[in-house]
Write a structure and sequence with these properties.
Pnp Oxidase, Chain A, mainly beta, seven-stranded antiparallel β-sheet
Length: 163
Amino acid sequence: MTDNQHHLYKTLSHGVYIIGVASGEHRNAFTAAWVIQVSFQPLMLAISINPQHYSYTLLQTGGICTVNVLGKHQYQLAEHFGDSAIPDKMAGFNWKTAKTGAPILSDSLAYFDCQVSHYCDAGDHKIAVCEVLAAGILHPGIPLLYEQTGDMDGSEALYPKNT
């Protein structure tokens, strides 16, 4: 492996998303880059989530979420929703409510309204496999790619060093 593993892993192409979760009246949103389509029939997405975060508890209890696609110009949104120290990350933004009841970020390029099918263990994360129940384009544009976020998420420090 290379000494700069974080640069190597950033070459894997994937976008940056805001995941909106809800359980009853409780709502939250977080930044995710590890989202992938995993099935055509039914249409399903897989989302990687840290089980130590509050959003994971809401996802487990509510069983619903939205995947909101960020545009190339929306780096600041990715940074904002990636900061777990902000008490009410959703305040000050416009939200719609999906058919499932999960929050849709009105400024996103597109959204997928999902219901959790099942979970899988994945090292220090959990994979939520979700069935897409509805989707839509809100603002056509070019998606923000994970590679374009630099070390915004602090992941560089998490990659193992060569021995």
